[in-house]
Each structure stands twice: as structure tokens, then as C-alpha cells.
Automatic annotation (TrEMBL):
PANTHER family: SERINE/THREONINE PROTEIN PHOSPHATASE, SERINE_THREONINE-PROTEIN PHOSPHATASE. Its EC number is 3.1.3.16. This is protein-serine/threonine phosphatase. It is an enzyme of class 3 (hydrolase). One of its GO terms (cellular component) is cytoplasm. The keyword Chloroplast does not apply. It holds the Pfam family Metallophos. Keywords: Hydrolase, Manganese, Metal-binding, Protein phosphatase. Its cofactor is Mn(2+).
Amino acid sequence: MDNLFSVFDYTLEESRELIENITSIHNDQKLQGFFSNIGMSSGDYLNFQMPDNLVVVGDLHGDFTSLEKIMNKINYEDYLKTESNILILLGDYIDRGNYSMEVLLFLCCIKSSFPNNMFMLRGNHEAYHRFPFSAFDFLRDLQNKFDDSGKTLYTNTMVPFFDSLSGICEIKGFSLLVHGGLPVVEDIEFFRNYKFKLSDMKSDDGLLEEILWNDPREFTGRDWQASNRGLGKYFGINITKNWLNHTNTKLIIRGHEPCMGYKFNHDNKVMTLFSSKDPYPKFESSYLEISKKQMEALELTLDIKEFVHGI
């Protein structure tokens, strides 16, 4: 694992080259359809047959220490040598913590080595140029690291990279994975061709905003309400049931909210996973590691907590 820390020494040109290479890989995968025996991509929508093993990592927010611990615990190089083992990250790699660029560079190194079984979803912090908000530090971090060239790197390299990230992942018969939450869909016709509609979220600001910014809430008498975040919505259990029923999945796995490593909403049908510790000392961090047999045998979604590991 000694090479883990080499990303701290990357020059501006090395950083740019790596990020742009991964952007090309992402864009190629979005166009090619099937990229492995179990995985396919259609634009912003990822779909997998149930993998032999699945690891899911929540928000990292520049926390290189937590990332290092997770990669050590799963022995990522051996784990990812098997094509049917999948690693999915739920977004928000930047801001809050001290090592946003280093987290991104290391994840891009993994993607470069294992392009067909490591996947990064987009978080709201990777869409500041689409949905601005106040607590965005990444541009300043780049300028501190690379001086005046940091702004050019952000505009010319990082923005296209963020746009290349997938928006949603479906694991057939098991789960929908997003960063924020489920869009409020009131027209049932949406689900007749939902995969196509989710494949081009960049042309639908409303859909992308909700995927990145929505949060589950325990409502009575309503399905949703505007979010106090100023972007996105709070969605209730009826929205969750609607999505699970129409996609034939058991569980929503998402990030976006600090918690004690994980939490459940909507009769345990929505699990929030959070993996950042250093910027959030009052909370805990964790990741999910589950096998195909365990996914198939899962009857009570609450039982998935047995496969959540603290960092």
C-alpha cells in the first residue's frame, strides 16, 4: 500500500492527465453499453446483475484517512482483481476535509487500474457548477495547491470529470444506489421507460437536482415537501415504495447525510451510509460489504446492518 500516498506528490500536469484519462473512461463506458459480464451503462444510468461481492462507500468529503482504512480493510487490489466484485462510491468526495484532491486522485488511480468494477457516483458537491451552494471549498483548495492554475484546472478538467460521473446505479433484484435520494415521480408513465429517462440527467435539471439533493423523511399525510437545504426535496415512504415496486428492488442505499455510520428510514427500506470521519468528529463512519448469497438471502432489509462495518 506504499503507493497510496504517491498522490500527495502529484504535479499539476500529472493530476490533469489522470483526471482527464478517467473522464475519457467514464464517457466511453457510458456509450459502449455492456462493459463486463455483469455490468452495463446507459449514459448516467449504471446497471449490474447481482455481483459476487459488493462494497459500497458513502460520502468521503476529503477524508483520506477513512478512505485509506476502507481500502486496507477490503484489501482493494486483491478484491478488485475479480471482475464480479464491485466497488461503488456514493459521491461527495470533496469539500469539508483537508484532502479533497488527494481523495479524488487516489480513486482515479483505482479506476484506472480496475475500470470495469470500480464506479463513482456523483454527489451534490460534484455539481456545484449546476446547483451552487455556500459551503463549496474545492476551488479554493485547488488554488491553494496549484496557485493560479487551480482555477483553470477546475474549469477545464474537474468540471468535465464531474459531469462524467454516473448519477444512479441499479443492482438487479437488490438495490438502487444514489447520492441523495429518489426523485418525486407523480406520472406513472415515467417507470415504463425509467432507465432511458435516467440515462440523460444532465439535460433534466429537476431530475438531477433531486437525485443529488433529496433526503428521506418520515411524513404522515404527504408524499414530499420542499427541503430546508434550499435545493431538492424531502421525500416520504410512498415515494420509496413506488420506486422499489417499479424497479423490483429491495432497498435504497444513499449517502448525503452525516449520521452514526449508517441509519434507516421508511420501514428500513432506505439506508443512509456515511464514510467520512475527520471532518465530522461528532459522527461515525462506515461502509457496506456484502456477498451475492447474503443479498439473495436478505428478507428483512434491517438485517443488512450485519454487513455494515465501522471504520
